[in-house]
Amino acid sequence: LGAGGVVVRFAGPTLAAAAGSAPLVPVPLRRGDRTLGGALSWSAPAPLASFDAASPFHGLAVPAEVTVGRQVLAEPTLELPDRTWARLADGTPLVTADRRGDGWLVLIHTTAGPAWSNLALSGLFGDMLGRLVALSARRPAAARPGRLAPHRVFDGFARLGAPGPAARPLEDGAVASAPFGPAHPPGVYGPPQARRARNLGDGIDSLAPLGALPSGVAVTTGTASAERPLKPWLLGLAFALVIVDLIAALALRGLFGRRGPAIAAALVGAIVIGGATARPATADDAAAVAAANRTWLAFVVTGDRRLDATTRAGLEGLAHVLNRRSAVEAAGARGVDIERDELAFFPLLYWAVAPDQPTPSPAARRRLNAYLANGGTILFDTRDQRTGSGALGRGPGGHALGRLTAGLEIPALAPVPPDHVLTKAFYLLREFPGRYAGGRLWVEADAERRRDGVSAVLIGANDWAGAWALDPSGRPLFPAVPGGERQRELAYRVGVNLVMYALTGNYKADQVHVPAILERLGQ
User: Fold this and answer.
1) What are the backbone dihedrals phi and psi of residue 399, each rounded to the nearest 5 degrees, phi first?
2) pLDDT, tens only, 445-463
3) For residues 440 and 384, what is the distance between their CA atoms, to the nearest angstrom?
4) What is the rounded CA–CA span in Å between residue 175 and residue 383?
5) Are 335 and 486 in contact (CB under 8 A)?
6) Contact, 1 vs 100, CB < 8 A?
7) What is the pTM assigned to this prediction?
8) d(CA 26, CA 74)
9) How sure is the predictor about 141, in pLDDT bands with cuts at 50, 70 and 90?
10) pLDDT of 172-193, one tens digit each?
11) DSSP symbols for 365-378
């Protein structure tokens, strides 16, 4: 062991009987053995777990049919996890090892034959012993004489492949010091049990600029790509062909008469003028495409940095829950400036009411009214349920809500009834808690008659974003009172239902097909 060897021991009845005082073992052992399976046991032979990354057996495939029926057990100590190289599926150590000098003392906690396990009859057993034999070959280069034949080498294009006819073996002690060239290229040398890597970087002492090149060698500098996008030209050509086909069809039907050339010239001129005046793509176009191609959880930017950061963290947390629990593929949270951003890309806007938020301009109010009239939904969260006033009350959030919504076409509202779609859009809910509990959620009173049953406006005061918000490590930013983590879970369910409600409408309220479905189910 002191010179770098490996001693492999196997368990058996003798070792099990003397386990408490057994010499030459890597870990303390319990006396006796453990039996898995058999006529007098409720358990069954245990399979092997996959090998850890730190184990020399890492990467070997573990067959499902390999099981262990008996083994000796190790005493639980602080060093046991670091000395375990293989485990059973229940976590019990199967192979343990300890460093002794330059070598290893290895114990396999079952027999070398099939008496206690069928491991010895599997191909995995041979692979494991091969890895253990390879450990004994890892001695210092000075103590390992011989020549190492090239196994896999790199060519001039950094491609790893079989060595060519020019590659020659290397002396064991000269793997890093031998000059690089066709005879000794970088790569992997040596037999399977003692591979050595020869790295090109080990032979580079310093970097120097390239000297003068021979005559006749062309030198070019890096330039921008010469590629040109053909999409606009191909689309224009396709449109021109459509117009030509239209002109030909009208001409064959005799609809042009003597004015045909003039009409054709006018159409061609319109195409040319349209192409010449086409507006180039801008950054706003790229932002619109990015917003339209993904499902975003949008929130209104209030100007209060702390509040906006909390809202963003809350919607990011809700997006994570939606992606894990539902078919919604939410891209994350996205802030929206109601004064300049396009709102049509977002089916639901979360508006955390800030007492000091500036009143929307007339242009912003027109944009918001158009958004509500064309299918958008805004969830106003006054966040003042902790004061006892709640939404539509006399709290600070309620006063700010009245000022911010002045001029908006908000329909008549009513508390969510027990049979509303929001109570069953995904989860079955009876209340709608957030960071705070007890407040009502208000919806449009007659939304079922239009907009596919989706309310244009929802108003609450329970600070849902505060309940959803997580820090970068995944821990909640704020406590949920008074219900704690159970209330936070209900808040996430409220958020899932809100998003499902905005995206899918009243499909859960549609009872037209229920009789046919029940008939198909035999009920």
Assistant:
1) -65, -45
2) 887 767 777 899 999 999 9
3) 12
4) 70
5) no
6) yes
7) 0.49
8) 10
9) very low
10) 777 778 888 888 899 998 887 6
11) HHHHHHHHHTT-EE
